[in-house]
Amino acid sequence: MSDAIFLDALAAGLSRRGMALAPESALFIVFEALEALGSRSAVLAPSAVRISSEGMVTIGPVLDTAIDETSVLEGVIETLEAVLDPVPAGVSELAVKVRSAEIISRGAMLSELAAMLVPLNRRAARRLVARLVREGSRPASAVSSIAPGDEEIAAKAILGLAGDDVESSGVHDTVLDGETLGAQRADRSTLGGRLPDGWADDAAPARRNKERRNAWFAMALAAVALVAAAVFLLERVRSASA
């Protein structure tokens, strides 16, 4: 695996060039690293996550032994925290879930990471990671091959939102537990915060007002029907008494 670089070296190399590892890139790399770890009792660390010049993620030969499943999950969080500055809110929330034992298995962790990346276009993401590897390996004085504004394009590529990349690579191919996550609704924020249906666009306030009016109208009809039923029953009682 020529020109491979470890995650800690990648983050450091980008930092020397005045760049930061984007949260989407780090999440994708760690997601693939946890998949590569499989069922091994080992702890992920930035110095053990290896990324090839083709953007492929593998695990290095030196890993600390995990004493339990919690150690594995803590390793995932600590790896993300080590290479992201500042640590985004989504990762902080994930850390709370791990440290409060809300997430207790690596399968659940994979689900959480995948949800933070939905919809994920792996092929486009690997191409982007490959560019980052090349950039992080360049001397600090070299001209950057990543132009200003490419960070936004990078995030879109990883999340499957860049039209050309999506068309060229086909269906979003993140598969977890037999289900293609790319086929799910993509109504999540970049780092996993879920937005209520229809609340993410300019027409949302008008829709909400219409829904409120419809709800009040339905409640009024129900009240009228209830009053009519009460009057009817009262008349029946009076008729029976007479």
Structural summary, described in words:
By secondary structure, the protein is mainly alpha-helical. It has two domains: 5-183, Transferase(Phosphotransferase), domain 1; 198-242. The protein contains nine helices and seven strands. The strands form three sheets. Strands 1-3-4 form a three-stranded antiparallel beta sheet. Strands 2-5 form a two-stranded antiparallel ribbon. β6 (175-176) and β7 (179-180) form a beta hairpin. α1 crosses α6 (122-136), α2 (23-37) packs antiparallel against α3 and α2 runs antiparallel to α5 (106-116). The longest helix is centred in the last third of the chain and has 38 residues, at 204-241.
Globally, the shape reads elongated
Compressed to H and E, one letter per element, the order equals EHHEEEEHHHHHHEEH
For the sheet with most strands, the description reads: 3 strands, antiparallel
| CATH topology descriptor of the largest domain | Transferase(Phosphotransferase), domain 1
Number of helices: 9
Helix content estimate: 40-55%
Poorly predicted runs are: 161-204
Strand order of the largest sheet: 1-3-4
Strand content: 5-15%
| Oligomeric description of these chains | single chain
For the record, give the distance between the C-alpha atoms at the N and C termini, rounded to a whole number: 98 Å
Total number of strands: 7
The radius of gyration is 26 Å
Q: Name the structural class.
A: mainly alpha
Instruction: Report the average pLDDT across residues.
Output: 76
Q: Number of folding domains?
A: 2
CATH class of the largest domain: Mainly Alpha
